C-alpha cells in the first residue's frame, strides 16, 4: 500500500497549480469593476442600449451600458447606467449630458452613488 500512497503525492502538486490558474481570472474581474458608473435618469420607455452608446461614446471609452427594463413589458423603467473607463471623460460626459433633452425628456446624469436621499 505504501507504493500506491507515494503515487498520489505527485498528483496532488498539479492540483495546486490549477488553483493558481483559477486566480489568474481575478484581474479581469477587477478590471470590470474599475470603471466609473454613471446613472442616467428620465429615459423614455422605448430607450434602447444603443442610444446610450451613441450619447456617451463621443466623450470617451464606454465599458458597459445597461437600460433597466420592466420584466413584463420589456420597456425601459426610466433609467439606466453607463460605465466609462476614464474619470475625466466621465466628468465631461456628465457635465455635458446632465440637462440634455432626449426626445421630449430632460435627462438627469450623475455618478452612481449608494446613498439614499433623505
Write the layout of secondary structure elements.
Elements: H1 2-23, H2 26-32, E1 36-41, H3 49-56, E2 62-69, E3 76-84, H4 87-97, E4 101-102, E5 105-106, E6 108-111
Pfam family, one: RRM_1
Region (Disordered): 1-20
Keywords: RNA-binding
What does this structure look like?
By secondary structure, the protein is α+β, with helices and mostly antiparallel strands. The protein has helices at about 1-25, 25-30, 50-55, 85-95; strands at about 35-40, 60-70, 75-85, 100, 105, 110. The strands form 2 sheets. It has a 4-stranded antiparallel sheet with strand order 2-3-1-6, covered by helices on one side. Strands 4-5 form a two-stranded antiparallel sheet. A hairpin with a 2-residue loop joins strand 4 and strand 5 (about 105). The radius of gyration is 23 Å and the shape is globular. The model is unreliable at about 10-30 (pLDDT under 50).
Short description:
Residues 36-114 form the RRM domain. Helix content is 41%, strand content 26%.
Give the low-pLDDT segments. Answer: 8-32
**Helix- and strand-based class?**
alpha+beta
**How many strands in all?**
6
Major sheet: size, sense and barrel closure? 4 strands, antiparallel
Estimate the helix proportion, in percent.
Answer: 40-55%
Taking all residues together, what is the mean pLDDT? 80
Gap between N and C termini: 70 Å
**Cross-sheet strand order for the largest sheet:** 2-3-1-6
- Residue share in β-strands: 25-35%
Radius of gyration: 23 Å
Shape descriptor reads globular
* String of helices and strands: HHEHEEHEEE
Q: Helix count, per DSSP?
A: 4
Keywords: RNA-binding
InterPro entries: Nucleotide-bd_a/b_plait_sf, RBD_domain_sf, RRM_dom
GO molecular function: RNA binding
Protein name: RRM domain-containing protein
